[in-house]
Design brief:
The chain is α+β, with helices and mostly antiparallel strands and 129 residues long. It is 40% helix and 26% strand. It has a single domain (13-127), classed as Pantoate--beta-alanine Ligase, Chain: A,domain 2, CATH 3.30.1300. The longest helix is centred in the N-terminal third of the chain and has 51 residues, at 13-63.
Length: 129
Amino acid sequence: MRQSSSTNDGFTLIEVLVSLTIMAIVLVAVFKLHAQSISVETANRFQTTAALLAQATLADVKEMPFDALQSDAGEYGGAYTGYRWRLTLADVATDELDPVGERLIRISIDIYSGVDNYRHNLTTYHFFQ
Protein backbone atom coordinates (compact mmCIF):
# COMPACT_ATOMS: atom_id res chain seq x y z
CA MET A 1 0.00 0.00 0.00
CA ARG A 2 1.13 3.44 -0.87
CA GLN A 3 0.60 6.35 1.41
CA SER A 4 0.26 9.84 0.03
CA SER A 5 2.41 12.52 1.52
CA SER A 6 1.11 16.05 1.88
CA THR A 7 4.35 17.68 2.98
CA ASN A 8 6.18 20.07 0.66
CA ASP A 9 9.88 19.40 0.26
CA GLY A 10 10.88 22.64 -1.54
CA PHE A 11 10.02 26.18 -2.53
CA THR A 12 7.44 27.07 -5.10
CA LEU A 13 8.33 29.20 -8.09
CA ILE A 14 6.35 32.15 -6.66
CA GLU A 15 8.30 32.03 -3.39
CA VAL A 16 11.61 32.06 -5.24
CA LEU A 17 10.55 34.98 -7.45
CA VAL A 18 9.31 37.02 -4.48
CA SER A 19 12.55 36.46 -2.57
CA LEU A 20 14.66 37.40 -5.62
CA THR A 21 12.62 40.58 -6.09
CA ILE A 22 13.14 41.58 -2.45
CA MET A 23 16.87 40.88 -2.70
CA ALA A 24 17.15 42.95 -5.89
CA ILE A 25 15.42 45.94 -4.28
CA VAL A 26 17.65 45.74 -1.21
CA LEU A 27 20.85 45.39 -3.28
CA VAL A 28 19.97 48.38 -5.48
CA ALA A 29 19.42 50.50 -2.35
CA VAL A 30 22.71 49.34 -0.83
CA PHE A 31 24.67 50.06 -4.03
CA LYS A 32 23.11 53.52 -4.32
CA LEU A 33 23.98 54.29 -0.69
CA HIS A 34 27.54 53.11 -1.31
CA ALA A 35 27.90 55.36 -4.36
CA GLN A 36 26.61 58.35 -2.38
CA SER A 37 29.02 57.68 0.48
CA ILE A 38 31.94 57.59 -1.98
CA SER A 39 30.81 60.92 -3.46
CA VAL A 40 30.53 62.54 -0.02
CA GLU A 41 33.93 61.17 1.00
CA THR A 42 35.53 62.60 -2.15
CA ALA A 43 33.99 66.03 -1.54
CA ASN A 44 35.10 66.01 2.11
CA ARG A 45 38.64 65.00 1.15
CA PHE A 46 38.78 67.89 -1.34
CA GLN A 47 37.48 70.44 1.18
CA THR A 48 40.01 69.34 3.81
CA THR A 49 42.94 69.33 1.39
CA ALA A 50 41.89 72.62 -0.22
CA ALA A 51 41.63 74.36 3.15
CA LEU A 52 45.15 73.25 4.05
CA LEU A 53 46.52 74.32 0.66
CA ALA A 54 44.80 77.70 0.91
CA GLN A 55 46.30 78.27 4.37
CA ALA A 56 49.76 77.34 3.07
CA THR A 57 49.38 79.69 0.10
CA LEU A 58 48.21 82.47 2.43
CA ALA A 59 51.28 81.96 4.61
CA ASP A 60 53.49 82.27 1.52
CA VAL A 61 51.74 85.48 0.47
CA LYS A 62 52.15 87.02 3.92
CA GLU A 63 55.91 86.37 3.77
CA MET A 64 56.29 88.25 0.46
CA PRO A 65 57.48 91.85 0.46
CA PHE A 66 54.68 94.34 -0.12
CA ASP A 67 56.19 95.58 -3.39
CA ALA A 68 56.31 92.04 -4.86
CA LEU A 69 52.62 91.28 -4.33
CA GLN A 70 50.57 90.58 -7.43
CA SER A 71 47.65 88.41 -8.46
CA ASP A 72 48.74 85.05 -9.81
CA ALA A 73 47.60 81.53 -10.60
CA GLY A 74 49.19 78.12 -10.85
CA GLU A 75 49.05 74.43 -10.08
CA TYR A 76 50.24 72.43 -7.13
CA GLY A 77 52.55 69.54 -7.87
CA GLY A 78 53.70 66.39 -6.16
CA ALA A 79 51.05 64.85 -3.94
CA TYR A 80 48.59 67.60 -4.91
CA THR A 81 48.65 67.12 -8.66
CA GLY A 82 45.29 68.16 -10.11
CA TYR A 83 44.81 71.01 -7.63
CA ARG A 84 45.00 74.53 -9.05
CA TRP A 85 45.09 77.88 -7.25
CA ARG A 86 44.28 81.46 -8.12
CA LEU A 87 45.43 84.38 -5.99
CA THR A 88 43.54 87.66 -6.32
CA LEU A 89 44.76 90.77 -4.52
CA ALA A 90 42.75 93.96 -4.21
CA ASP A 91 43.35 97.28 -2.52
CA VAL A 92 40.96 98.30 0.21
CA ALA A 93 40.18 101.93 -0.50
CA THR A 94 38.84 103.80 2.50
CA ASP A 95 39.17 107.43 3.45
CA GLU A 96 39.26 106.58 7.15
CA LEU A 97 42.50 104.57 6.87
CA ASP A 98 44.55 106.89 4.67
CA PRO A 99 47.55 106.92 4.37
CA VAL A 100 48.15 103.55 6.07
CA GLY A 101 45.17 102.05 4.25
CA GLU A 102 47.31 101.67 1.17
CA ARG A 103 48.96 98.65 2.80
CA LEU A 104 45.67 96.94 3.63
CA ILE A 105 45.08 94.24 1.02
CA ARG A 106 42.15 91.95 0.37
CA ILE A 107 43.55 88.47 -0.33
CA SER A 108 41.35 85.92 -2.07
CA ILE A 109 42.63 82.41 -2.73
CA ASP A 110 40.60 79.98 -4.84
CA ILE A 111 41.53 76.30 -4.90
CA TYR A 112 40.16 74.13 -7.71
CA SER A 113 40.18 70.45 -8.48
CA GLY A 114 40.09 70.03 -12.25
CA VAL A 115 39.06 66.39 -12.13
CA ASP A 116 36.03 66.71 -9.86
CA ASN A 117 35.14 70.38 -10.51
CA TYR A 118 35.27 71.31 -6.83
CA ARG A 119 36.10 74.83 -5.61
CA HIS A 120 37.19 76.25 -2.26
CA ASN A 121 37.63 79.95 -1.46
CA LEU A 122 39.55 81.67 1.32
CA THR A 123 39.22 85.45 1.58
CA THR A 124 40.92 87.55 4.22
CA TYR A 125 42.38 91.01 4.77
CA HIS A 126 45.98 91.61 5.74
CA PHE A 127 47.89 94.73 6.67
CA PHE A 128 51.47 94.68 5.38
CA GLN A 129 53.89 96.75 7.45
